[in-house]
Amino acid sequence: MSEGTLYDTVWDAHRVTTLPNGQDQLFVGLHLIHEVTSPQAFSMLNERGMEVARPDLTLGTVDHIVPTDDRSRPYADDAAEEMMQALEANAEDAGIDLLDPTTGNQGIVHVVGPEQGLTQPGKTIVCGDSHTATHGAFGALAFGIGTSQIRDVLATGTIAMDKKAVRKVEVTGELGVAVTAKDVILEIIRRLGTDGGVGYVYEYAGEAIEALDMAGRMSLCNMSIEGGARAGYVNPDETTYEWLKTTEYFTENPDEFDRLRPYWESIRSNADAEYDDVITIDGGELEPVVTWGTTPEQGVGITEPIPKPTALQEDKQARARDAQTHIGVEPGETMEGYAVDVAFLGSCTNARLPDIRRAARVVEGKHVHEDVRALVVPGSQRVSAAAEAEGLRDVFVNAGFEWREPGCSMCLAMNDDQLVGDEVCASSSNRNFVGRQGSSSGRTVLMNPSMVAGAAITGEVTDVRDLSTDDDTVGSQPGVSA
Amino acid sequence: MSDSVAVPSVTDVSGTGLPLRGNDIDTDQIIPARFLKVVTFDGLGQFAFFDQRYDEKDNPTDHPMNQPQYENATVLVVNSNFGCGSSREHAPQALMRWGIDAIIGESFAEIFAGNCLSLGIPTVTASAEAIVALQDWVEAHPTGDISVDIEEETISYGESTAIDATVDEGQRKALVEGIWDTTALMQSNQQAIETTASELPYIGGGKS
Ligand code: SF4
Fold it and tell me: What does the UniProt keyword field contain (chain B) (predicted)?
């Protein structure tokens, strides 16, 4: 078993006891809730006549079903309105802060937690959503949980969990132009498979990871779950502290910052920590990665040929054949030139300010291809406002993009933002499963935000490095927070 | 906070059977995604296997769940890899609310079995042949009782048929000892919870 890692240290600090069923009971430092998975848990709590134990450590937002265009109440979709009202009532009854659209702080749950300064190193963070792994970017232990577990957390402020093994995923070197954290994680999943992380938590390390800004670290940790890992994290460092310092919570409580910093430093994995497994990837070799199939592991470098199913592991061949039929691609070709109908820049993986900035640099002065419907759905109202203040909204709107209100949108198509028929979507989201974007014949190609921008402009999957030959800033990682 | 809930131990389940044949039945079939847009699990029972139970014109099919002889069944008998796919807890919730108390099958998807356990529903496995024989028997005797003994790991039915079954060890312990409800288990550790919280530097006044 691992020893001396951040995972071990933070786990031990939160361990209340070992339960008779063999699991550890952990104290939960931050519980994030949203409208889709929480109402049933509140009902269960009511059935038992119990109250929310730690409303002070719980924060709500609305993201999955919220419309991204007309947000006047009641929402046009009755089911969405009902879910919103349930969340409002539950939050009000329990005394839980709710970041609804009137607050100016609403957004996707994994964007707003960090933005509010509540996602901090050394916390345990849970949410009824598998992409909770995102918060590991700050050196928190963050887990997606099921509805009965949400009830557990609401009722007791604690959660029952099995301890996992720790795999160190080391990415060495320096990432090339237009190669981002999204490409790194797609590459990790491509190499290890969507079940490669089962039984593990991932610690991301190495120069290429340390050089990432917080938005990049969030994109990386976000997709740990697509790689099968229960969670992923990056050890906190100066980049983390600098980011935290700028949040409202710590600008208002500067003493807290000074008081907590030693704790944050104390939880970093020891230099001689023991891991259950270590893998190393040369970050300098990577190029932008896009998917050619219907699972996130079916990815390929933009200039590389799509593999023959027979060249893959035996148990992956049938699925690869089905995927290539569904997507309509041939092995031996590259993904470059594959026509797209929709460009979606959004989701908790890639809808933060640096993502939008990077995409804007590609879009600036150009126009969306006439056959493409292109959408920017900022991750939160704050991201949206900041982007607007920098003039980025105008860049996109002038280029022919729709600029929407924040929410999950076409990432899972629970609102009206959906693919129609067999449309192809160049998407900055995290799942390319059949039907994920709202149409069972729809096709999703996952890629980084500037690649989505490139596809919107040319109407096909494009190596964005060719689009911006004299602008080597496309792939850079501005060290900014938002 | 209320007094802790008494968690019943589940040592045995008996009732009439519902045979549902087919391997790899996924949670999307058990409860289609469009029924997730709800605020409570309460009404989910009627949507269990909805797309299998109703055709495109909403006419009932001959799915076993539509047949009157199985109306009061509580023991679901399935084949292999039941409950694979998305981790939605809505799936076991829908089955439970339809009336299912226990599921017997050749094998179950891991997350699905875990979700069942959090509801106190045992997922008991037996050999492929034994399952098929049981499904045949249920079809011939829809009013006959099946008894599942979790502790002894046996399934008995009819005049005198008893078959060996397997219940995952952690699951068996949790069910038999009545420790499958983690809320109840954890609630009793109030003092230790407070001690742990008080030692965490970031837990303090207000939202931290
Ligand atoms: S943006 Fe997508 S992945 Fe993220 S929380 Fe919303 S639905 Fe889930």
Answer: Amino-acid biosynthesis, Branched-chain amino acid biosynthesis, Leucine biosynthesis, Lyase
Q: Is A385 on the interface with B (CB under 8 A)?
A: no
Q: How far is CA A460 from the centre of its chain?
A: 24
Both tokens assigned to A173:
């070197």
Distance (Å, whole) CA A401 – CA B116: 45
Interface of A with B in 433-462 (CB under 8 A): 435
Ligand 1 centroid, distance to A203 Cα (angstroms): 22
Give the Å distance between the CA of A409 and the centre of ligand 1: 8
CB contact under 8 A, B39 and A39: yes
Q: CA nearest A286: which of A362, A448, A202, A174?
A: A174
**Which runs of E-coded beta strand occur in A338-442?**
342-345, 373-376, 402-403, 424-427
Contact status of B150 with chain A (Cβ, < 8 Å): no
Note whether A1 and A165 are within 8 A (CB).
Answer: yes
Atom of ligand 1 nearest to the CA of A411: 2
Q: Kindly give the confidence (pLDDT) of every residue in chain A, 482 residues in length, as a single tens digit, with 9 standing for 90 and above.
A: 999 999 999 999 999 999 988 899 999 999 999 998 899 999 889 989 999 999 999 999 999 999 999 999 999 999 999 999 999 999 999 999 999 999 999 999 999 999 999 999 999 999 988 899 999 999 999 999 888 899 999 999 999 998 999 999 999 999 999 999 999 999 999 999 988 998 899 999 999 999 999 999 999 999 998 998 989 999 999 999 999 999 999 999 999 999 999 999 999 999 999 999 999 999 999 999 999 999 999 999 999 999 999 999 988 898 899 999 999 999 999 999 999 999 999 999 999 999 999 999 999 999 999 999 999 999 999 999 999 999 999 999 999 999 999 999 999 888 899 999 999 999 999 999 888 898 889 999 999 999 999 999 999 999 999 996 444 444 444 433 33
> What domains appear along chain A, each with residue ranges and CATH number?
6-162 (3.30.499.10), 165-237+269-285 (3.40.1060.10), 291-466 (3.30.499.10)
Q: What is the DSSP letter of A168?
A: E
Where do the domains of chain B lie, and which CATH numbers do they carry? 12-177 (3.20.19.10), 181-208 (no CATH)
- 3-state SS class at A93: helix
Helix (H, G, I), strand (E, B) or coil at A325: helix
Going by C-alpha positions, the residue among A163, A135, A16 that lies closest to residue B199 is: A16
Q: Which amino acid is at A312?
A: L
Ligand 1 centroid–CA A113 distance in Å is: 14
CB A373 within 8 A of CB A342: yes
- What token pair was written down for A333? 């070709």
